[in-house]
Amino acid sequence: MDNTYYLESRIAGSTNPQRIVLDTLPITIGRSADCAVIINNSSLSRVHARIELHANKLILCDLDSTNGCFVNHQRIVSNTELQLGDIVHFAGIEYCLKAEDNCAEDDDRTRIYMQTLPKHFAVKSKEFAELLDQQLVTTFQQIITLQNGDVYGYELLGRGKHPSLGASPFELFKIAESLNKQNELSVLFRRRGFMQAELAGIKKPLFFNSHPEECHNPDQLLSELSELRKLHPSLQLIFEVHEAAVTDLGAMIAIRNGLTDLNIGLAYDDFGSGQARLRELTEAPPDIVKFDISLVRGIGNSESARYKLLASLNKLVQDMGIATLAEGVETEDDAIACHTIGINYFQGYYYGRPTAITSE
């Protein structure tokens, strides 16, 4: 083999081996002292599994174990080839197959355990690495309208294009977070979105997002946005920040000032979904406040408490010179209510579902 392969465990506080180096094959794995790798866990059989090398391929063999061997959460029924990034379970003990360039014996009884496999590692890590390396993402746009129904701008929404992964950003970020690659995915979505928008000749405002983790390092985030601003000086950009992403007022002020220097607007996203940014409204005022769907959905009744709350919040924000936007407008009744309240901008399925970026 050109690389040194190993199985790495991510079980915090475990006495099990943290790494099984596959430099001398075959190896046997189990509880017995006769095994090359001894794992002191009662869910494993005495001689549980063997890993062999055939034609430069790693092969996992289950040795009639009681609780089984699993590859990517599927119990194997025959000898199975292992691929880089595969998730391997010996009974309930979880490992991930990785690569680098270039037990004490108990009694003979194997205890049966319930088959609930831990999932510390994400399946499809190999495919996710390909997505990042080959930039297999695209961008959709969600229309944002004015009160008269004209298009005001768009929100950029990332989607995956890898044939073996889903398109949903939610699922992709789940994999990314398990690999500590969430920032890389967020940057890739943003860069691809800006490039597609410029190629399409979009001149209207573009709302874009970040992963909350990025906001923990404002200097690095602003440096990356500065680079993108140089690449796309003509785009009208508005950066959306969720209220949970930045909890430190000083960091929020730094982001606000940095965005101003880059001629990038600021929107507070999902306003009202948790603790409203009342102090930030004065200390680090945004250009736009986006009211969360939880405030907007079902407010058609003008006598309801939710209608009165949204009307009051809208007046408070607008009196501070900040524009407002209603997210998640899905019905005609909610659209009429938001218009009546006097909200400036509207976004939601009532005005159109996300579509691929096209020329204006």
UniProtKB/TrEMBL annotation:
Q: What is this protein called?
A: EAL domain-containing protein
Record domain FHA: where = 27-76
Q: Which domain of life is it from?
A: Bacteria
The signal peptide annotation in the UniProt record is none
* Bilayer-crossing regions: none
Q: Which residue range or ranges hold the EAL domain?
A: 120-360
A Pfam family of this chain: FHA
SMART domains according to UniProt: EAL (SM00052), FHA (SM00240)
> Which Gene3D superfamilies does the annotation name?
2.60.200.20, EAL domain
